[in-house]
Amino acid sequence: MSTLRTIPAPAQALLGSDALAHVITRNADGSPQVSVVWCGIRGDRVVFCTEGSTAKVRNLRRDPRVVLSIEDEVRNLAGTQHHLVVHGTAKVLGPADPDLCDELCRTYVGRADHPTNLKDSPTAVTVAVDVERLAGNGPWTVDD
């Protein structure tokens, strides 16, 4: 599948906010594995930092297909919660990008020196997701 050329501005805004992303990968037996990450955007890629020993990283190294689900605070006129679903292919990059780690800490907890900052972990990695398709419910979806 090809990479999406441009992520629409409303999706970029949600991806750059403090909304948590649910990352869905596949375990070796094909069952889903879900974890929550702080995510951001760099160009037209979704990025996050994580420990390299996690199940999601092991899964992505074996099968780079990934889905992220991000819930917005906005509801449409029918009362349905807006949410963005990102389908893509992940690349595990290492070590973790310290600038990205600081940026995510500032976005999610208001300070770069937060104890959860992974930038000093020798085993942390950055994951970059090439976006192939957007779905969900919100201003980032288009009628086919």
Mean pLDDT: 92
User: What's the CATH architecture?
Assistant: Roll
Q: Helix coverage percent of residues?
A: 10-25%
N-to-C SSE string, H for helix and E for strand: HEEEEHEEHE
Low-confidence spans: pLDDT under 50, at least 5 residues? none
Distance between the termini: 17 Å
What is the CATH fold-level name?
Pnp Oxidase, Chain A
Instruction: Please indicate the percent range of residues in DSSP E strands (runs of 2 or more).
Output: 35-45%
**Numbering strands along the chain, what is their spatial order in the largest sheet?**
2-1-5-6-7-4-3
Gyration radius, rounded: 15 Å
- Major sheet summary line: 7 strands, antiparallel
The CATH class, by name, is: Mainly Beta
Q: Count the beta strands.
A: 7
CATH superfamily name?
Electron Transport, Fmn-binding Protein, Chain A
Mass-distribution shape:
globular
Brief digest:
The protein has 144 residues and is α+β, with helices and mostly antiparallel strands. 19% of the residues lie in helices and 42% in strands.
What does this structure look like?
The protein is of the alpha+beta class. 19% of the residues lie in helices and 42% in strands. A 7-stranded antiparallel beta sheet has the order 2-1-5-6-7-4-3.
